[in-house]
Amino acid sequence: MSDNNEITVWHPTTDLVGALAEISSPEEIVGYAQPTLSPRDQKSIVAGFNSGSYEMVATFVWAKAAATLKKQLATLGMEFVGEMLCRNDLFDNSDPSTSISDYEALSLAEDLGMVTPTQAMRLNQSLVLVTHFANIEYTGDSSEEMVKEEAIVLLKNCITSILGKPKFETAIRFVEFRKSLAERSFNSSDAQVQSLIDSPYFFIRTTVSILLSLVKTEKGAPLEHAVGNTILIIPSVWQKLKTSEKWQIGQAYAEVNAAGNRPATIGLKKALTAVHGFDYVPESLRSNTFNEAASRVLMAHFGINNFYNEVAPMSNLASLGTTIPKPAFARCMEATLAVWLGNAYGESWGAIEHATALLGKLRTEQWEYYINECFPRDRVVLSKLSSDRKPTIRWTELVKAFELTKINCTDKRVQFLINNSKQMPASYVIINRVASDLRAAVMS
């Protein structure tokens, strides 16, 4: 382990493949397995080849490779291995040689980056080969026996992927990093965080799972550390996360919110906001979150010093996600357009930047939904168009900027209003009158 506890990125050894490519002598091949095979083991392997006992020597080599791999995996802690394999029956005193299958060991080794995908494929082929010949009953038919070339390939696979490698120290460092997630708060400049970003995906996925478990179960100082590390690490690895892990984070947010775990809720919300990740929160909670954010925008808009106070809540609303949930769409549009249109005194340029960003993400069908289903009942927007000249001018700019005249309107009054919003000031009176009529219809 390095002095700074850095999680060194593991790069599986592959140069042995080239070194053994042209070698066919068992005596020479086993010499590359010195890191793990004793001289006695090497002599036994060579003797097996010389006697033509290819099935026996292949079984022996595979057993040595599997035992070595499982022993290295056990350095992670068998209980942690159980977590990674989704097995609740593994504990720290479990025997890796008997409690982990060969297939599980290979699968986990590939996830950890101990072997490359190509090496994992070859090792799985070797496992199939050994299993196949172990199950064959002797009939005297030589065509059913393993040939030397098959045993040589298996020997090379086991040496290049497992037996010829040094110990996998990276896994040990990761276990220590895992423990520290609830014991200290990391900074973005910490070597452990930087190297985690470049680690095999399994480490990233496992770290996210650990953090989510900690924020849901810990209390006091460990919870504070876990929340702080969640806010730091999730945005750092978000682009690398697969969809399933992103949904896992969104589901965790829903769970801690429902449980009233305020510190965890705040932490996960900050992490999701930083990456526009609310698309992965369950729909009902997403809608509530968007509605609450829109309400804060409207409170600021109609409050004192609104041009200054609108910026933060509008920025928050725009950053929640790339898609607004349908149940919250009308409220979010009401708040966003309130900011975009401004009031009789002007508009908040700082907030408009974020409002424009949100409006720019809308698809044509979303604009159609707003114009046909929401706009005729949008009291805030209709009130602005009914009485204030500056918001009306901004409305005509909105119609032009987002090409709303191309929208197929189902309400003839709305279509008439939009068609007369192409230019100002000639259309001001018409916009004002139609908006007033629509506003009155909402109240009736």
TrEMBL record:
Protein name: Uncharacterized protein
Organism from which the protein derives: Aquisphaera giovannonii
